[in-house]
Write a structure and sequence with these properties.
The protein is an alpha+beta fold. It contains five helices and eight strands; from the N terminus they run βαααβββαβαβββ.
Length: 172
């Protein structure tokens, strides 16, 4: 059995990343967002977004794969939150193809993102997730993240209001 490998994303990965992004949203957010919103997600639009992100290295993007089959991806960089020190990194996105959930892909991506953020001099990392996204909350809390009290905010996605929560952990 081959083991999961993680490497920097290339422009050739953009379509696979987009397909994973859409599939993960459609599975993870079923019941949180209306079916019409999830069904309307476009691989083509996500592909354009991820091509630009990979090209500009903003955020840094890594992919997890076995024998070149993409299984998931993570985007990370400095925190986008106003007022955070430059030593604070952020997981901008982390998604795994639902067919590869619970196989260690998320952990491999987290390890690579953590290492990348540490190489950039980050001593703390944050991320935002939906409060009702129990799978993500469980994963990140097992990875040592803590909920940041008072950080909850309401965002609107496809006409649906969702509560988001920031999580944080030390990298030192």
């Amino acid at each position: 059995m081959s083991s999961i490998q993680v490497r920097p994303a290339t422009l050739r990965d953009a379509k696979g990343i987009a397909e994973i992004h859409v599939a993960a949203w459609q599975d993870a957010y079923k019941g949180l967002l209306p079916d019409a919103v999830l069904d309307a997600m476009s691989v083509q639009k996500r592909q354009a977004f991820w091509r630009e992100a990979i090209d500009l290295c903003e955020p840094q993007v890594v992919v997890a794969h076995i024998d070149n089959e993409l299984m998931g991806f993570a985007g990370f960089d400095r925190s986008r939150d106003k007022g955070t020190p430059s030593s604070t990194g952020e997981i901008w996105a982390m998604y795994v193809n639902p067919v590869h959930w619970d196989k260690g892909v998320g952990l491999a991506l987290w390890d690579a993102a953590r290492d990348g953020l540490q190489e950039e001099g980050c001593t703390k990392v944050t991320l935002w997730t939906y409060l009702r996204n129990e799978r993500a909350l469980r994963f990140f809390e097992l990875a040592g993240f803590k909920r940041e009290l008072g950080s909850a905010k309401t965002t609107e996605v496809g006409g649906t209001r969702l509560e988001e929560l920031r999580l944080h952990r030390s990298l030192v």
